[in-house]
Here is the input.
Amino acid sequence: MKTEEELQKIGEQVIEVICEIYDPEIPVNIYDLGLIYDVEVSDECDVHITMTLTTPNCPVAETLPVEVEEKVKIVPAVRNAKVEIVFEPTWTKEMMSEEARLELGML
Here is the structure.
């Protein structure tokens, strides 16, 4: 059984990996883009990621969640990863980090 501190560290490692995944149409990682709503790490080191897409008919709707799952599974302590796509709340540009808005010239 992992301690809260160990689970938190695994969560941080998961976020680091997610920050390496970019939307192919926007030069910003999906975490800073605001597409990741939640990352939960269970006591068994299973990771559940709640994310959205910029639009429901996003061209990478089929591939991006799979890419996130596969890359998160590479984190040594992670046993399994599952991405749940949601559209509530609806993604808006305000969900982007300040860094992402600066990168895209929106500040």
Summary: Residues 19 and 29 are 5 Å apart (CA to CA). Residues 4-18 form the longest helix (15 residues). The beta strands are 36-41, 46-51, 80-85. The chain has one domain: 4-93.
